[in-house]
Amino acid sequence: MTMHCMQSIFKASSLTYEVEAVCPWSGARAGILTTPHGRIETPVFMPVGTNAALRALTWEQTADCGAQIVLSNSYHLYLRPGHELIREAGGLHKFMNWSRPILTDSGGFQVFSLDQLRKITEDGVFFKDHRGGKKHFIGPKQSMEIQNAIGPDIMMAFDECVKNPATEEEARKAMERTHRWLKVCTEEHKRKEDQSLFGIVQGSMYEHLREESVAAVTAFDLPGYAVGGVAVGEDRRTIERIVAHTTPLLPRERPRYLMGVGTPWDIVYAIRCGIDMFDCVSPTRLARHGTVFTTNGQMAVKNAGFRKDFSPLDENCSCSTCKNHSRAYLHHLVRQGEMAGLMLLAIHNVTFLIEEAQSCRKAILQGSFQDYFSRWSSTRGPLAVQ
């Protein structure tokens, strides 16, 4: 399968996106995303450092895993240590000493996941701190103020995300409020010269609502667009249906971001649909539970069968964990609750997803993505834990 070479270049004041190649069979794209803090080769997996740190990893280790861009969460940073303190430190890059690009989530999903601790109004959300119980308010205006203070390269619009299954009425109400809030976000965003604001498409499981949301969100001339409200309670087939239906509707010349998905299958399938960027906490979360990604599916390292297994986690992986340590040693560390075990598993998982996205990119550029996807889905797919 040949590739379609592209010369499409989109330029905004703080972002440039060049589409290098497109797979004619699927619409999968390879591109270059340039931000004030560097160049990103897409498709790209973005590790999540919610509180300005990846769990069990230093930023030096994160860079060694191949991370080109990382994600932090403005909701958590607003609560602790506070966006004004981060502004005083010179912005999030300086505060955490990370020189590469950063994307921040608006906090919308975190606020709405509080359930009984929040009250939604037209202006925003009143909520209680999930730790201390202190009352707070965040709306689209406040979200822009927080993210402008923090200073990421890419910032997300404040949106309302419903958990699935949601009724069509619930999904429409949240979607339309998201559109109204996006207008406020565009008006209150004060750093357009060095920060890119991405809009978020909502609509839950309903394809016609997704179509309406794409039309409304892309009516705002933004540097990029995201598909939100996915993997929040629906089954895998529904996730795949919505991603496949929604992605091609987004502008071809601008970056496309699928929020909050991060298994190997999720990534490869989303790339097939034309997604450029993804994030998820799964690599470090699974590591904390002693589980890793491998080319044969997820593997629970703490299982007794690995006690005398002196092979690496994955012979095809280039991470430092696989180069230097055996399954038996990692099994021992996990069983003993050693922090080093969690760190080594996190290094592997983060590297694994980053390299999966890069393998897809290479196949797209070589014109072989259809063969790559076919082999991948027939031999691997969403496999169970060993």
Tally of separate helices: 15
What portion of residues is helical?
A: 25-40%
Q: How much strand content do the residues show?
A: 15-25%
* CATH topology label of the domain at 43-281: TIM Barrel
Shape: globular
**Count of extended strands:** 18
Radius of gyration: 20 Å
User: Biggest β-sheet, characterized?
Assistant: 8 strands, parallel
What is the CATH homology-level superfamily of the domain at 43-281? Queuine tRNA-ribosyltransferase-like
**Rounded mean pLDDT score:** 94
Question: Structural class per helix/strand content?
Answer: alpha/beta
Which regions contain 5 or more consecutive residues with pLDDT less than 50?
none
**What topology, given as strand order, has the largest sheet?**
6-16-15-14-13-12-8-7
Spatial separation of the terminal alpha carbons: 34 Å
Tell me what you see in this structure.
With 386 residues, the chain is α/β, with parallel strands linked by helices. The chain has a domain at 43-281: Queuine tRNA-ribosyltransferase-like (TIM Barrel, Alpha-Beta Barrel). It has helices spanning 59-64, 74-79, 83-88, 92-96, 108-112, 140-150, 168-188, 207-218, 236-246, 264-273, 282-288, 320-324, 327-335, 339-366, 369-379, and strands at 4-5, 9-11, 16-22, 29-35, 38-42, 44-47, 70-73, 102-105, 118-120, 125-128, 135-138, 154-156, 196-201, 224-227, 256-258, 277-280, 291-294, 297-300.
Task: Please write out the topology.
Elements: E1 4-5, E2 9-11, E3 16-22, E4 29-35, E5 38-42, E6 44-47, H1 59-64, E7 70-73, H2 74-79, H3 83-88, H4 92-96, E8 102-105, H5 108-112, E9 118-120, E10 125-128, E11 135-138, H6 140-150, E12 154-156, H7 168-188, E13 196-201, H8 207-218, E14 224-227, H9 236-246, E15 256-258, H10 264-273, E16 277-280, H11 282-288, E17 291-294, E18 297-300, H12 320-324, H13 327-335, H14 339-366, H15 369-379
Parallel strand pairs: 6-16, 7-8, 8-12, 12-13, 13-14, 14-15, 15-16
Antiparallel strand pairs: 1-3, 2-3, 3-4, 4-5, 9-10, 10-11, 17-18
